[in-house]
Design brief:
44% of the residues lie in helices and 14% in strands. By secondary structure, it is an alpha/beta fold.
Length: 569
C-alpha cells in the first residue's frame, strides 16, 4: 500500500446532513494521495455502501465497507436515552452480511432517537467484522474521559471477549482539547490489554476549507442558525480527509497507530458478486415445474382470448395460427431465459387485484408487446393488431430482467402490497424501495439562507433567480442569470450564501419511499441488503433503486395512479 496510511473512519453524504463528502470526490482524493484503499463508515445505516463499493472498484481502489453503529447503553429494546459509537468494518462476505443484519436490527428493534444495536447483537453477529472503538463518543474512550479507568478496562474486556484480535483502539488527533488525555489513557489501556492502536480522523468533509459549509449543514440538520450560541457544532476544523503526510505528522508520538491502518486494510477483502437473480419462491403444484405451469397458464389464457375473438367474428384459421406461433416463440424465450416465475408472480397479484375489484391499468411500456402477458391478463392490450414487438421487452441476446410497469388505483395499492407480503413470507421478505431527496439548487439556497439567519424575503428573491429547469445547478444559473452575479458582487452575505449553497448542493437531504418499486426476496431481506423503516412503518431497502436491482433481487413496479381512482369513481 503505497501511501502507508489508510483512512478507516469516513462519513459521506449518506450520513444524512452530517457528512458532506461525495463518493466520487473521495475517490479522486484517494488517487491524488496515492491511497489504494479507503473505508466508508456512515452513521447508523448503510445507505451508500453499495454505491461506494461499485465506484471504488471502478476507480481501482479497494473499498472497505463499514458502518459507525450506535450502541444502546443497555438492551436495544429499552427506551433509555443515550448511546455510544462503535465502528465496524467488513473483512469478507460474512462480515458484510452481518453488517446488513445489524443495520436492520438497529432500525427495527433498537430505534430510539437513533437506530441502535446492543452488546447482545454484537455477540450474535460479529463474525467477519473488525471493531474500532470510535471517537470520544465510543464507550471505552468516554469512560477514559470520565477518569473511570476501571470501567474502561471492564468494557474493553467485554469487547475483547466478542472480537478478540479484531478489536482496535482508535486514536484521533483533531484539535479537540479533551482528545489528548483520552489518547494517553487509550494507549495505556492498549499496552496493558495487548490491543493495537489505530489512527483515524473521523472525516466528515473533504477539505479543511469545507468546515464552514459543514457547520451550515449541521444547522440544517438541527434546525438552528449560525447565530445560535447553543447549536450543535464541531469544536475544530480538522475533521477533513487529511493526506497521509498530515496524518503521519499528527501521529509522530504513535507511528505504530499509522502502520495499523495498513494492517487492517489488508485484513479486509470483501468481494460482492453481481449478475445472479434471486426470485421469490412461487408455490409450484405437485408434479409441475414453473415452466410447465407458465406454459399451461399461457395456453389456457389464449383459449379464453380466442373465445372473445370468435364472438367478435375476427378469428380465422390463419389468425389463429399466427397467434399460436407467436405464443410458442414467447414461451420458449421466457423459459430459456429463466423468467417463467416472474410472469406467474406478476399474473398472480394482478389477477388477485382484479378479483378484489381493485382498478388495474391495461399495461404500458415494452411489456405491452408480450402476447404471453396478454394471455395471462397481466396486460389488456393485444400486441398483434398494433404490431408491438416482443423483442423490445425480452431478447435472448440481451440478458436483462423483464420489467412490467403495473398501475393500481392509488387508494387501494397498499392492499396489493399486503397480499404480496402475506404470500411471500411477510414484511421481512418484501420491501419497498428507498429513494433520496437531494438538495436541489433552489432548496439549497433556502436551507442555507435559513441556517445563516438571513431575511426570508431576501433569500426567496435570490432563490427565484435560479431558472426553473430540470438539472439546473447554481453554477449553471450564474452563467444564465447575470442578476445572480450582480447580487453577489453587491452584498458579501449573498456571495457567502451562494458559495455555501453551491458547496452543499446535490447532497442527500432525507430518505423517502419510491413511488412504485417493491422487491420480494426468496428469504429474509437482510440476507441480500440492509433494510430500514419508512415513515408509515413500512419496510424499506436501505439501497436506492439502482443498487437494489444490483443485488439480484427482483423488483416489481406497483404504481399508485390517481387517474385510475378517478375513473373508477
Amino acid at each position: 500500500m503505497s501511501a502507508g496510511f489508510v483512512h478507516l473512519h469516513v462519513h459521506t453524504q449518506y450520513s444524512l446532513l452530517d457528512g458532506a463528502i461525495r463518493i466520487p470526490d473521495l475517490l479522486d482524493k484517494c488517487r491524488e494521495y496515492g491511497m489504494d484503499s479507503v473505508a466508508v463508515t456512515d452513521h447508523g445505516a448503510m445507505y451508500g455502501a453499495l454505491d461506494f463499493y461499485v465506484k471504488a472498484k471502478k476507480a481501482g481502489i479497494k473499498p472497505i465497507i463499514g458502518c459507525e453503529f450506535y450502541i444502546a447503553p443497555g438492551h436495544r429494546g429499552e427506551r433509555k436515552k443515550g448511546h455510544f459509537h462503535l465502528v465496524l468494518l467488513a473483512m469478507n462476505h460474512t462480515g458484510y452480511k452481518n453488517l446488513m443484519r445489524m443495520a436492520g436490527i438497529a432500525q427495527f428493534e433498537g430505534f430510539y432517537h437513533k437506530p441502535r444495536i446492543d452488546m447482545e447483537t454484537l455477540a450474535a453477529h460479529n463474525e467477519g467484522l473488525i471493531a474500532l472503538t470510535a471517537c470520544l463518543k465510543g464507550h471505552i474512550p468516554w469512560l477514559v474521559g470520565q477518569n473511570d479507568m476501571d470501567g474502561a478496562r471492564e468494557k474493553a474486556r467485554e469487547y475483547l471477549a466478542i472480537f478478540g484480535d479484531r478489536l482496535y483502539f482508535e486514536l484521533q488527533e483533531n484539535g479537540i482539547a479533551e482528545q489528548t488525555p483520552i489518547n494517553e489513557g487509550m494507549k495505556k489501556l492498549a499496552a496493558e490489554l495487548g490491543v493495537k492502536t489505530v489512527a483515524t480522523n473521523d472525516c466528515h468533509y473533504l477539505l479543511q476549507e469545507d468546515a464552514h459549509a459543514h457547520e451550515v449543514l449541521l444547522c440544517i440538520q438541527t434546525n438552528s442558525t449560525l447565530n445560535d450560541s447553543r447549536r450543535f457544532r464541531f469544536s475544530s476544523d480538522e475533521f477533513y480527509f487529511k493526506s497521509p503526510e498530515e496524518m503521519k505528522k499528527s501521529f509522530q508520538h504513535t507511528p505504530e497507530a499509522i502502520a495499523t491502518t495498513v494492517e487492517i486494510a489488508r485484513r479486509c477483502n470483501l468481494e460482492i458478486n453481481f449478475g445472479d437473480y434471486y426470485f421469490p419462491i412461487f408455490p409450484v403444484t405437485e408434479g409441475e415445474t414453473l415452466e410447465s405451469m407458465f406454459a399451461t397458464a399461457c395456453q389456457t389464457g389464449l383459449k379464453e382470448r380466442f373465445a372473445a375473438m370468435r364472438t367478435a367474428g375476427v378469428l380465422t384459421p390463419a389468425v389463429e395460427e399466427k397467434y399460436k406461433k407467436r405464443l410458442a416463440h414467447e414461451i420458449e424465450v421466457i423459459n430459456t431465459m429463466g423468467f417463467p416465475g416472474y410472469f406467474l408472480i406478476v399474473a398472480d397479484f394482478i389477477n388477485w387485484a382484479k378479483d378484489q375489484g381493485i382498478p388495474v391499468g391495461p399495461g404500458r411500456g415494452s411489456g405491452a408487446g408480450s402476447l404471453a402477458a396478454y394471455c395471462m391478463r397481466i396486460t389488456n392490450i393485444d400486441p398483434l393488431p398494433y404490431g408491438l414487438l416482443f423483442e423490445r421487452f425480452l431478447n435472448i441476446e440481451r440478458k436483462s430482467m423483464p420489467d412490467f410497469d403495473v398501475d393500481f388505483c392509488q387508494e387501494r395499492r397498499g392492499e396489493v402490497i399486503e397480499y404480496v407480503q402475506n404470500k411471500y413470507g411477510g414484511a421481512s421478505h418484501v420491501a419497498q424501495i428507498l429513494t433520496y431527496g437531494t438538495m436541489k439548487a433552489r432548496a439549497a439556497i433556502r436551507d442555507v439562507g435559513r441556517a445563516m439567519d438571513l431575511p426570508l424575503n431576501e433569500v426567496d428573491r435570490i432563490a427565484k433567480l435560479i431558472p426553473e429547469e430540470l438539472k439546473m445547478t447554481i453554477k449553471k444559473a450564474f452563467a444564465e442569470e447575470p442578476r445572480l452575479q450582480d447580487a453577489a458582487d453587491r452584498d458579501p452575505k449573498i456571495a457567502e450564501l451562494l458559495r455555501v449553497a453551491q458547496a452543499l448542493e446535490g447532497l442527500a437531504r432525507h430518505t423517502s419511499t419510491h413511488a412504485a418499486g417493491v422487491v420480494v426476496a426468496p428469504g429474509p431481506m437482510v440476507e441480500f441488503l440492509p433494510t430500514c423503516r419508512g415513515k408509515d412503518g413500512e419496510t424499506l431497502t436501505q439501497y436506492d433503486m439502482k443498487h437494489t436491482e444490483m443485488t439480484g433481487l427482483i423488483k416489481f413496479d406497483f404504481l399508485g395512479l390517481k387517474t385510475l381512482t378517478v375513473i373508477d369513481k
